[in-house]
Write a structure and sequence with these properties.
Number of domains: 3
Number of strands: 2
Structural class: mainly alpha
Order of helices and strands: HHHHHHHHHHHHHEHEHHHHH
CATH class of the largest domain: Mainly Alpha
CATH architecture of the largest domain: Orthogonal Bundle
Strand order of the largest sheet: 1-2
Number of helices: 19
CATH superfamily of the largest domain: Hypothetical protein af1432
Distance between the termini: 48 Å
Largest sheet: 2 strands, antiparallel
Length: 421
């Protein structure tokens, strides 16, 4: 059955026309993501705790799978419950799944600490942002081999779906986060098909809030997953327990509804039914969704902007409470800050070593990179572009590979060769 929610405008590809096969264009987007090394590397990248410390903590990969499951479920729920949608007019679950699976592809090793470190190091060269790096992977590098760089020929709806942020680095006075790279303006132009942006969307970060309905679903799925599951990991790890939550609550100005949420969480921990409660909350977060119509400069061109996601405010508030607990009791703990400091230090030293060898020393005979990355950097004469390629390589590292690279470069007693073969 043809899904009339989408048109040729939505399925048009960024670089060239695809050959049709038995799959829909959005199924192809999803399949191409799943079978990439960039997606597999997420299994060894930090979500909250350093990957590999314990087997049952979430990594970027398991988090992305959970986000994708929630995203698909929201699509199915909306199709069955919304009077605005139907069997032949609905938000495509394969498209949303592809967007959700991709949403963290560009994140570097060591979580958000690694992202902040690379952004600081890349400030003179256009900055670094995980969402921008995801876009760069999908449009430029995800299928690179033999020294050649290739994107994955994504559809317009898919590119738009991963564009959680659309404001350019150069449009911000102090770009700390939430931007894309200046050279990615062509992707924004492609998404809007060259339509001139309304003046009200061109100031500051206002364009970041203008998102397709699929991007909105991805963002809420991400919020639902990490507000609940990061909390669960924090409890299982011992960072969060009944006494700490109660002390935290005593220090806050909580409303009666907030207090009820905290008491329910404490009861779930005390009665050893946390997993069951979390699973039930996922269902409630999915059923908190609805869609409404909206009017804007893109709503005539595509249903992706004619509809928007709405979330029950009470459930949104519940998610915020869970995130606040995790931030205060886990992310601000000295133990996690020490690990983040170490991760940032490792990336800074690797970056400085690579930059020192390849920038300003074009005739250096020392090869510090794997073969294809070495070939890409050597064939690029523009220093800023060279630094971006070095950053690409570092951002693509897993936590463990970054640590081994640091040891090979700086530890006299470490000498593994196998990672460069």
């Amino acid at each position: 059955m043809e899904n009339k929610f989408y048109s040729a405008f939505d399925t048009e590809c960024l670089t060239k026309k695809r050959e049709a096969d038995y799959r829909t264009p959005f199924e192809i987007d999803r399949d191409r993501i799943i079978h990439t090394s960039a997606f597999r590397r997420l299994q060894a990248k930090t979500q909250v705790f350093l990957s590999g410390e314990y087997d049952f903590y979430r990594t970027r990969l398991t988090h992305s799978l959970e986000v994708a499951q929630i995203g698909r479920s929201i699509c199915n729920y909306l199709q069955h419950k919304s009077p605005l949608l139907s069997g032949d007019f609905h938000i495509d679950p394969s498209l949303v799944e592809a967007i959700c699976l991709s949403h963290d592809l560009g994140h570097p090793p060591f979580g958000h600490a690694g992202e902040r470190t690379l952004n600081e190091l890349m400030k003179p060269y256009g900055g670094f942002e995980g969402n921008a790096q995801t876009l760069r992977l999908i449009t430029d590098t995800i299928y690179s081999s033999d020294g050649r760089r290739r994107g994955m020929t994504p559809t317009r709806a898919f590119v738009d779906g991963i564009l959680k942020y659309k404001t350019l680095h150069g449009q911000l006075e102090n770009p700390e986060n939430h931007f894309i790279y200046d050279e990615q303006k062509s992707c924004v132009d492609f998404v809007f098909n060259g339509v001139r942006l309304p003046k009200e969307l061109t100031a500051g970060k206002k364009l970041n809030a203008f998102r397709s309905v699929e991007c909105q679903i991805m963002d809420w799925s991400d919020d639902a997953a990490y507000s609940l599951n990061d909390l669960a990991d924090g409890i299982h790890s011992g960072f969060i327990n009944k006494d700490k939550i109660e002390r935290w609550a005593d220090e806050q100005s909580l409303s009666p509804d907030d207090t009820r949420i905290v008491h329910e969480l404490v009861a779930a921990i005390t009665e050893r039914r946390l997993e069951k409660v979390i699973a039930g909350k996922i269902g409630k977060f999915i059923q908190a969704c609805s869609v409404n119509k909206r009017e804007n400069f893109m709503s005539e061109a595509t249903n992706r902007y004619r509809f928007q996601l709405e979330i029950d405010p009470a459930i949104q508030n519940e998610a915020e409470i869970y995130k606040r607990i995790s931030i205060d009791l886990v992310f601000r703990s000295p133990q996690l800050h020490q690990l983040e400091h170490k991760g940032g230090y490792v990336l800074e030293k690797i970056f400085d070593a690579f930059k020192g060898n390849y920038i300003g020393k074009e005739n250096s005979k020392i090869n510090l990179l794997p073969r294809d990355a070495e070939r890409n950097v050597r064939s690029t004469t523009n220093p800023n572009q060279r630094v971006r390629l070095l950053c690409d390589h570092i951002a693509g590292m897993t936590d463990g590979f970054a640590i081994r690279t640091y040891k090979r470069l700086f530890d006299p007693e470490f000498g593994s060769l196998v990672d460069l073969i």
